[in-house]
Amino acid sequence: MFAQLLISGIAQGSIYAIVGLGLTVLYRATTVMNFAHGEMYMLGAFFVYVGLHGLGLPYAGAMGAAVLASVLLGFLVERITIRPLLHAPHISLVMATVALSYLFKGIARLFWGRDIFPLPPLLSVRPIHVGGVLLTSQDLLITGTVALLLVGFFGFFHATRQGKLVQAASQNLRGAALVGINIGLFFGAMWAASAALGAVAGILVAPLSLLYPEMGTRVLIRAFAAMTLGGFGNLGGAVLGGVLMGMIEHLSGGYLSTVFMDIAPFVVIIVVLLVRPVGLLGRRLAVRV
Amino acid sequence: MRRWRRILVLLVAWMIPGVAAAAEQPGLTSDTIKVGVFAPFTGAASLYGKISHGVEMVYLSANDAGGIHGRKFVLVREDTACDPVKGIAAVKKLIHQDKVFMLHGGNCSNVVLAIKDEISKAGIPYMVQAAASYAISTPMVRNIFHPINTTVTVGTTMVDFALSKPGVKRVAVVTHTDEWGRTNHDPTVQHLEKQYGLKPVEDVAMEKGTSDATPQLLRIRNANPDFIIAILYPADLPVFLRAAYQYGLRVPVVTTQAISIEDQATRVGIPEAVENLYVFYPFKHTIASPEMERWNAMLKRYFPADTPETISFLGTGGALGVVEIIRRAGRDLTQEGLIRHLESLSGFETGILADTLGFTSTDHQGVKRGSVVTLVKGKTVVVGSKWRDVK
Predict the structure, then answer these.
(1) ipTM of predicted assembly, 2 dp
(2) Burial group, residue B351, by CB count within 10 angstroms (0-12, 13-18, 19+)
(3) Beta strand ranges found along B222-348 (DSSP E)
(4) Which of residues 160-219 of B touch A (CB under 8 A)?
(5) How confident is the model at residue B314 (pLDDT cuts 50, 70, 90)?
(6) Can you tell me whether residue B71 is helix, strand or coil?
(7) Mean pLDDT within A192-204
């Protein structure tokens, strides 16, 4: 039972990790906490649904189109909603994302009503048993995707010039602008990358959770908890926090009580804030004065 | 001439009470009856907003048939989003601002329980749409009528059904942890204990919106149950059933009337995973049966985007009861009169509900019986009568 709970916890945590990664990418670059990220997760899945059933695309094509649509959505959100508020108080930006969350849910209801839609599994492979542990293709796919994304993002941020530029620009926007970096494009690209990550998570999960306009709400709270646990603004922290969150949830549900699974993220947030406010991989910022 | 004058006087005398009543009664005119309809049209439970369509179609159909005693229904809609705070605001608006004649709404028990006091104070006739908590009609409030199977009926039926199967002694329960889950869970477990002297071999919680039920499944599998009672929402039951199938748990599952069995097969995506699924069913006939064609067509006529399913018609019986009572009450309609007439409704055959509809001055739980359905070769089959006969 332990091994099974551990494996399923890692798979579940990988979902939180991708969502947390999307939030972190945006937070690092713009310091905006996007409360509409759960809806980007939801819309990504619905874009696949439209691609499959509305446009008649094959699954792979529908997924590709959904990620592209999400990239476009990210750019549009930044250009139309966020950029005009760039010099407004930070709380205005956060409230704008809250408003977007409601707007996207409303739009989803407008187009797809209140029904719950199924998506076929991404892989039609029967679950396999390894040493008494059940491994489903969907779980393996989710975990594998997280691993790839993690490697990709770390590679990009730490091994490429563009990645280092992004990191530098997010540290000092004025300085970046002075050296000729297009800040508008930079912000747009970060929103697009974040939206794409949200969409990828939604696409991976939708065959398991089904599609409905509110499907992003729960996972967003989990992702916040994961980010708090791993360290706000730390890419590795978001992934580590997400995976640990999933493991905590499943192990506590299996051995303590399933009721604990509901409250696990809130307990984690409180404990982390009390014991180590910067999270597991977070670092205190030292400012030279 | 004198004779004609007498007839005229009698005619005016006959009309005056109706006109006077209409003048005094909120939401009632000589040609309209204003009905306040409220449901979760937005929010996490907006799926249940479509229950309201099954209610509204009855009023709209009555209007298209010429109305009742010269009056047509005017529906005023409010959204509760399944949120008690919004529910209270919606009901206050309908009563005090829109001044409706009666209320017909509420699909979330938490909302209906929150508005119970407000409605009780206002004294306005209120027909519940589909909120099922037994606490809505127990203790009874004189102006609140509950025309669907309560969570007590659903819970006892699920337990009786499970225990009617030969050799079933070990029952596991999986429930959501919200108000809806609790109001279904408690009477179910109480009935299991009181009637059969059994405790659930495993009693697990499942959070709404989860995509993995592994911990719940492993706990239940370790408890080795003969039957599972699943008190889960339509989006969550497929997650549980799929996991049960993947983890090799081939145990019958019975669930509540919140589930449309027709959709589960599609949503679960694995036909074998729903082979042993049983659903409490409030209607006489299955959705696809010729007997339901009349209701399916009515829904399609007024709400073409809706696909008829079980939850579409949960509130229809109550609306049919209201229309029948307004017809019986005649032209001289008052709020108090409507309540009195509803309390005299007995054994009313709605043509859709499994049970007859009826209220008395001491009991406002209008329906107390449902059946159980399952899928046989992809088709929904009512098994209720069979297992009741066995008992």
Answers:
(1) 0.84
(2) middle
(3) 227-231, 253-255, 277-281
(4) 177, 204-212, 214-216, 218-219
(5) very high
(6) strand
(7) 94
**CA–CA gap between residue B233 and residue B215 (Å, rounded):** 18
Contact A1 B218 (CB under 8 A): yes
pLDDT digits (tens, 9 = 90+) for A93-131: 899 999 999 999 989 988 887 778 888 888 777 788 888
Angle between helices B179-196 and B151-164 (to 10 degrees): 50
DSSP reduced 3-state for B175: strand
Kindly list the residues from chain B whose CB atom is less than 8 angstroms away from the CB atom of residue A118. Answer: 238, 266-267, 269
Instruction: Report the run of H or E that residue B35 belongs to, with start and end.
Output: strand B32-39
Cα(A5)–Cα(A8) distance, rounded to whole angstroms? 5
A287 band by pLDDT with thresholds 50, 70 and 90: low
Tens-digit pLDDT profile for residues A141-174: 889 988 898 888 888 888 888 888 888 887 777 8
Give the tokens for residue B304.
């073409």
Closest CA to B48 of B235, B229, B304: B235
Contact A225, A238 (CB under 8 A): no
In this predicted structure, what is the pLDDT of residue B225?
96
Asked if residue A282 has pLDDT above 80, the reply is no
Highest average pLDDT, of A67-71, A166-170, A254-258, B310-314, comes from A67-71
SS3 label, residue B254? strand
Alpha carbon distance B211, B199 (integer Å):
28
In the numeric block, which tokens belong to residue B197? 């002297």
pLDDT classification of B6: cutoffs 50, 70, 90: low
Q: Rounded distance, CA B155 to CA B200, Å?
A: 13
The residue in chain A having the minimum alpha-carbon distance to the alpha carbon of residue B309 is A115
CA distance B179 to A56: 41
User: pLDDT higher for A228 or B44?
Assistant: A228
Q: Would you give the DSSP letter of residue A286? A: P
Q: In what order do the strands lie in the sheet with B144-145?
A: B72-79, B32-39, B102-105, B126-128, B144-145
> What pLDDT does residue A50 have?
94
Nearest to B157 by CA among B283, B309, B281: B281
| pLDDT for residue B35 | 97
Picking from A78, A36, A82, the residue whose alpha carbon sits closest to that of residue A199 is A36
Q: Choose the closest CB to B47 out of A115, A118, A253.
A: A115
Task: Give the residue among B267, B265, B279, B71 at the shortest CA–CA distance from B158.
Answer: B279
Q: Tell me which DSSP letter residue B283 carries.
A: B
Mean pLDDT across chain B: 89
Distance, CA of A166 to CA of A256 (rounded, Å): 44
Read off the pTM: 0.84
Instruction: Please tell me which of the candidates A109, A134, A210 has its beta carbon nearest to residue B246.
Output: A134
Q: Which residues pair with B72 in a beta bridge?
A: B32
Residue B318's alpha-carbon distances to A78, B41, B251, B338, B373, in angstroms, are 49, 19, 35, 14, 22
What's the number of CA atoms in the CB half-sphere (13 Å) around residue A279?
26
Sequence-separated (6 or more) residues with CB below 8 Å from residue A89: none
Give residue A197's identity as a one-letter amino acid code: L
| Mean pLDDT value of segment B165-189 | 92
